[in-house]
Design goal:
- The protein contains eleven helices and 18 strands.
- The protein has 346 residues and is α/β, with parallel strands linked by helices.
- The chain has two domains: 2-153 and 295-345, Alpha-Beta Complex (Quinone Oxidoreductase, Chain A, domain 1), CATH 3.90.180; 166-291, NAD(P)-binding Rossmann-like Domain (Rossmann fold).
- The strands form four sheets. Strands 3, 4, 5, 9, 10, 17 and 18 form a seven-stranded mixed beta sheet that branches. A six-stranded parallel beta sheet has the order 13-12-11-14-15-16, sandwiched between helices. Strands 6-7-8 form a three-stranded mixed beta sheet, with no helix packed on it.
């Protein structure tokens, strides 16, 4: 049996091909018919060679929703036809990290079409994807497959803002970088009861999107002094700053905003670049640094609840949709500043 997939043969060499449908090998295997797969910057960087820890040939795409197509003999909780959300990171459930709730640290983990552990398996830019039963979550009936595909980045935003940085009701929050993940951080902060919520970006398009998700103020740091403007809005400084831009300049801006007791989260940057801290100042400020990557099972459950309850309207994030046959156009659009989340429908 064959399926159509976007196969990455080398950097900048993405081909639509007919390939075999993955075969189930183990009792807990589940074959999922992919209905939607979001494009993440991680996927774009792999395709373009910006990220080099990629094996070939491979199928990218890790923001996946779909329907169960077949189940292994040991699968207990899902049946053919069930609408599901796929967590791309699989875990063993047995190592110390898993048993202490840090499933994203799992020493035996795998990832579907993404980045992280050494075991990278084919992802969602295909008609079918093979995964394990424990990575599946039931899709609420009141959200679409396109919306469900964005659960994983929403779970990451919840984990960073709420679990790690412990945002509190009434906090004044600054989010630096309001692309897809930054807008989700804004949405989580708004649903959690942020008082003043300041979005910072170089793009008016991105800032307008942040307003849709609940930002009370915007700062275009390409047009004005960001620190001065933020302190006009928040004269006593922020309670929480989230860096979601992925640039070292954003991290440095975050550090410059600190006042006593500020919590700050290095959330977006993944490149190995350096910034400086004044040791004594950091000590006396009692500023608390956090960082966050990936998702956990808890974060996935929380994100699904946010969607099901309508506390985050994730449909606003999706600006473009493409069939799998037009994935090259979708990847090209990733270079445009006038887009947010792009979804591929195999």
């Amino acid at each position: 049996m064959k399926m159509v997939a976007a196969v990455l043969h080398s950097f900048n060499d993405l081909r639509l091909e007919e390939v075999p449908v993955p075969e189930m090998q183990e009792p807990d295997d589940v074959l999922v018919r992919v209905r939607a797969c979001g494009i993440c910057a991680t996927d774009y960087k792999a395709i373009k060679g910006i990220r080099t820890n990629v094996s070939f040939p491979s199928i990218q795409g890790h923001e996946i929703s779909g329907q169960v197509a077949a189940v292994g003999s040991g699968v207990r909780y899902f049946r053919e036809g069930d609408p599901v959300i796929v967590q791309p990171l699989g875990h063993c459930g047995i190592c110390t990290d898993c048993r202490t709730g840090n499933t994203h640290y799992c020493r035996n983990s795998f990832v579907l079409g993404g980045d992280g552990p050494p075991d990278v398996r084919n992802g969602g830019f295909a008609e079918y994807v093979l995964t394990k039963e424990h990575t599946l979550y039931r899709k609420p009936a009141n959200i679409t497959f396109d919306e469900a595909a964005i659960t994983e980045p929403l779970a990451g935003a919840w984990k960073g803002v709420i679990r790690h940085s412990e945002m509190r009701l009434g906090d004044d929050v600054v989010v630096i970088g309001t692309g897809s993940i930054g807008s989700l951080c804004v949405a989580v902060a708004r649903s959690a009861g942020a008082a003043r919520l300041v979005a910072v970006d170089t793009s008016d398009y991105a800032l307008n999107k942040a307003v849709e998700f609940g930002a009370t103020h915007t700062v275009n740091c390409a047009k004005e002094n960001a620190k001065s403007r933020i302190y006009e809005i928040l004269p006593e400084g922020p309670d929480l700053v989230v860096e979601a831009a992925g640039s070292i300049e954003a991290v440095r801006l975050m550090v410059s905003l600190l006042r006593r007791g500020t919590r700050w989260n290095v959330f977006g940057i993944t490149t190995h670049e350096k910034f400086e801290l004044d040791g004594g100042l950091t000590h006396f400020l009692e500023a608390r640094m956090d960082s966050s990557f990936g998702t956990t099972t808890e974060a996935m459950v929380r994100a699904i609840k946010l969607l099901e309850a309508g506390l985050v309207d994730i449909g606003k994030l999706i600006t473009h949709r493409f069939p799998l046959a037009q994935i090259h156009d979708a990847i090209k659009l990733m270079e445009s500043p006038n887009r947010c989340k792009i979804v591929v429908n195999p």
